[in-house]
Amino acid sequence: MSNEVEFWEVHYSTEAEMRTFDPGNAAKELIQFVIEARANDVFITDESDRVSIRMKRLGRVELLQYLSKNAGRRLQNHFRAVGGADVTDHLHPVDGREVIELENGIQVDVRISALPNIFGQDLALRLFYSEQALLDLDQLGFLDYELDLIRRLLDSNGGLLLVSGPTGSGKTSSLYAFLRYLNRGDVKIHTLEDPVEFVLPGIVQTQINRRMGIGYAELLHAMMRHSPDVLMIGEIRDANTAEVAVRAAGSGQLVIATVHARTVAGSIQAMHSFGVNPNFLANSLSGVISQRLVRRLCSACSTRITLATTPGELRGGPNGGDVQECRSFSIPIGCELCSDGYDQMTCVPEIISINQAMRRGIASRLGTAELAELADANGLLSFATSARQRLWSSLSSVEELVKVSPESDIDALVDRPIEMAAPVI
Ligand SMILES: [Zn+2]
Predict the structure, then answer these.
(1) Taking a C-beta distance cutoff of 8 angstroms, is the pair 255, 163 a contact?
(2) Domains and CATH numbers, the chain
(3) 85/76 Cα distance (integer angstroms)
(4) Cα of 420 from ligand 1 centre, angstroms
(5) Distance from the CA of 334 to the center of ligand 1, in angstroms?
(6) Angstrom distance (rounded) from CA 271 to CA 244
(7) β-strand partners of 288
(8) I want to staple 363 with a disulfide (CB 3.0 to 4.6 A). Which of 282, 294, 297, 404 is the partner?
(9) How would DSSP label each residue in 39-67?
């Protein structure tokens, strides 16, 4: 797909063109186009003398089209009207939601958010469609041994499993895949979400209500009286929720929750910062998964290359030792099937299953750095290892993976084009 995409041939800038502009049709075409491009976010933004339409695909913003102010406003208003977001209020941020059915029968859930900007507004559309978002555990991009580790954590009898990572790191997809894996009909599963993004049959899903002031803690207390076997908490963000989560996990329930942190050690530290009893936390925590998303190399066009020399800084090869093999990895090329050599996002995790030594470290409230060291010595699957594995197996590129693990030795491979030898055939 080229970078200059236009989904409308006409720019609708003159009065005559404006008469043919149908915002309803345009909205459908736009959504259809964005879904086909496998993007999830659309921005319809007022600029000084025009309205831009952009989408975010594989983590990057791409310009689709400029509209005249008039056409752009009508399109924005159309989305706001059908989404139930107040069309007249341009001073406050407003939200809305609608379901659009495309020609091929796919239903797209469109979440609308309008934010005033200095020229008018920035209308953000976030698209959810079940085909794409409800991935199975083995479709998220975890490698086989990572999946084994995750399944062991999910199959264990109770305990707290923390999931962390920055916004846009695929936490929601992972959580839903975990729940679907556990949802075999013989356990009672409850979720507490903000908001519920997908309906999962057989699971009791509850949404917090900020407007009414009904938050995680209050609902969680009530939920405990409904005999859950598995509890999913959208995000632990206060002391009360943290305490109930730890207590539930300690009494035999499996609690899966996200926390706002970037690493495994940071996630444990985040729980400490909520003031939970360190001994309770140490005893109930079963594992931590922190994750990032990177762009996956397109298998149709990516090319495996070999460096002429092995960078001396590199410490470990594909099987932990053979540095010679590190010279070979794949680079993005770009073809009709992909975007700049990449075809979708894939997961890179940091995972630990908590053992006795880790429990002692957590109970004694080690700081983040000491905890990270201890984790390293106690079976942590680090970002550096995960990133290297994905490099050697041609899943992603040096440029993408170095972002996940900037301190790692992959950095030694950046900007070494001169040393690149002929492609390996
Ligand atoms: Zn390609």
Answers:
(1) no
(2) 15-131 (3.30.450.90), 134-298+341-381 (3.40.50.300)
(3) 11
(4) 20
(5) 4
(6) 12
(7) 162, 352
(8) 282
(9) --EEEEEE-SSSEEEEEEETTEEEEEEEE
The β-bridge relationship of strands 254-259 and 230-233 is parallel
For residues 72 and 63, what is the distance between their CA atoms, to the nearest angstrom?
Answer: 14
CA 28 to centroid of chain Cα atoms? 26
pLDDT (tens, 9 = 90+) of the chain, 425 residues, equals: 334 445 554 455 566 666 778 888 889 889 988 888 888 899 999 999 999 999 998 888 999 988 888 889 999 999 999 888 888 888 888 888 888 887 777 788 899 999 999 999 999 999 987 665 678 899 999 999 999 999 999 998 899 999 999 988 989 889 999 999 999 989 999 999 988 888 888 999 999 887 788 888 889 888 989 999 999 999 999 999 999 999 999 989 999 999 999 999 999 999 999 999 999 999 999 999 999 999 999 999 999 888 766 665 555 555 555 555 567 889 999 998 888 999 989 999 999 999 999 999 999 999 999 999 999 999 999 999 999 899 989 999 999 999 998 777 777 777 655 445 455 44
Name the helix (H) or strand (E) containing 80.
Answer: helix 69-82
d(CA 208, CA 340): 40
Q: Please give the distance, rounded to the nearest whole angstrom, from the Cα atom of residue 391 to the centre of ligand 1.
A: 17
User: How long is the chain?
Assistant: 425
Q: How far is the CA of 342 from the centre of ligand 1 (A)?
A: 6
Is 0.85 topped by the overall pTM? no
Burial 284-315 (b: 16+ CB within 10 A, else e): bbbbbbbbbbbbbbbeebbeebbbeebbeebe
Q: Three-state SS for 307?
A: strand
Q: For residue 396, how far is its CA from the centre of ligand 1 (angstroms)?
A: 13
Starting from the edge strand earliest in sequence, which strands make up the sheet with 204-207, in order? 204-207, 189-193, 230-233, 254-259, 159-164, 285-297, 342-353
